[in-house]
Amino acid sequence: MNQFSVPASATRRSPLRVATTLIAASVVAAGAAVALASSADAATTLGASAAASGRYFGAAVAANKLSDSTYVGILNREFNSVTPENEMKIDATEPSQGQFSYTNADRIVSHAKAQGMQVRGHTLAWHSQQPGWMQNMSGTALRNAMLNHVTQVATHYRGQLSAWDVVNEAFADGSSGARRDSNLQRTGNDWIEAAFRAARAADPAAKLCYNDYNTDDWSHAKTQAVYTMVRDFKSRGVPIDCVGFQSHFNSNSPYPSNYRTTLSSFAALGVDVAITELDIEGSGTAQATSYRNVVTDCIAVPRCIGITVWGIRDTDSWRSSGTPLLFDGSGNKKAAYTAALDALNGAPPTNPTTPPTTPPTTPPTSPPTSPPTTPPTGGGCTASVTLNQWNGGFTAAIRVTAGSAAVNGWAVTLTLPSGATVTNTWNAVAGGSSGTVRFANASYNPRIPAGGNTEFGFQGTGTGPSATPSCAAS
Ligand code: 9MR
């Protein structure tokens, strides 16, 4: 399918996120032994590497492949977000008017929840993949049917999805900058904002995204038209939280050198941006370079919250002959995979208060050139936890604050509720994955100046910690 003829379109993170701030606390005597981490802290899977900078790395998933053990093995190992490839589309969820069908979509959501993955809903309102009954509708009847569909489906998944692609592919290709003609567009130009308002009312926790393709190049009329719409929505209070860039690249529609400009320009409007359906046709070094560029651009933009690839193995792709994905048909990692992982591991943190991930040039044991008059020994530390909880999983961000004296190493101990498991950690080294877990500083962030702070985090399945953490300084 040629990208320009594709009727199509995108992603993000979990609803029911309860921001709970647990109190800090615990000053520990100086001299507590803290082993400094010496191993490299680079994560070894796409999801863990993305999580290290507060992002996700997801894949489009097909329900009928959840019985394929190779497919599921890669999915569970590498990804921490999923987008149902077809199962939440209008024809799948409302095949007959007023009769909703969620079996296949629910299978994907259940799988994701069990694995502590986020789910991006895709998609509520689209000119394509409409069931026959909707294709034949127009005017007020269609508008009402569309809004009912948005309300019913978003209500079914209320609190369970990180994001919804509320509206997909509503702009025309080419130089017109116009809306795409469709039965939905002919119900009135306000159909898109009406869909967003209905989605917000039905699921206030899900991030609401507009999603499209051929909007990657900042100079394209279609990109500018979507930008103008999002700017207008933000200025008028239409509830939009994010913009999805599908990013289906091939020789006709290659990765554009101004891609980062596109992402950062949209982000500057006050929305998150996400790469929602990434695939890049090709092979070898050229393909790997394009993947590296895309990932590097996303992690350079603080509001680029995550990347979703449109399938797992090349053979799973809608464009399988173009071998556009990160794993070959046998499930082996391709050069593109290594390039994407390496780029993720170079990511600066999304939170500007989080310390840099690059190690200091001077090792902690090297004496300073001019020694301080009072060596910073001990002084204690405190720790506070901010928890983002969703059904089946959580992320915890922990701030470690030094007392009146600098610390040269630290360790925070937390007790997880029964059934909770740590799946990945960033900016610290975890001494376990369940029960009472000790998180020691990483090799590059042992030192905190007097009164200063540093942050680390971890992701887990189950329920996040509610008990007060303790902090030991050295
Ligand atoms: O990958 C999807 C393919 O299996 C479907 O046949 C097709 C039609 O619904 O949609 C594909 O996914 C599209 C996505 O929903 C929107 N953006 C373009 C994607 C590729 O066509």
Structural commentary:
The structure is a single chain. With 474 residues, the chain is an alpha/beta fold. 25% of the residues lie in helices and 23% in strands. It is built from 11 helices and 18 strands. The strands form 3 sheets. Strands 2-3-4-5-6-7-9-10 form an 8-stranded parallel β-barrel, surrounded by 5 helices. The chain has a 5-stranded antiparallel sheet with strand order 1-11-12-17-14. Helix 6 (139-156) packs parallel to helix 7 (191-202) and helix 10 packs parallel to helix 11. The longest helix is centred in the N-terminal third of the chain and has 18 residues, at 139-156. The chain is globular and about 70 Å long. The chain binds ligand 9MR. Ligand 9MR binds next to loops.
Strand content: 15-25%
Q: Bound compounds, please?
A: ligand 9MR
Separate helix tally? 11
- Roughly how many Å apart are the termini? 61 Å
Oligomer: single chain
Shape annotation: globular
Strand order of the largest sheet: 2-3-4-5-6-7-9-10
Summarize model confidence as the mean pLDDT.
86
The secondary structure category is alpha/beta
The radius of gyration is 23 Å
**Percent of residues in helical segments?**
25-40%
Write the element-wise H/E pattern from the N-terminal end onward.
Answer: EHEHEHHEHHEHEHEEHEHEHEEEEEEEE
Q: pLDDT under 50 segments (min length 5)?
A: 1-39, 351-377
Question: How many beta-strand elements?
Answer: 18
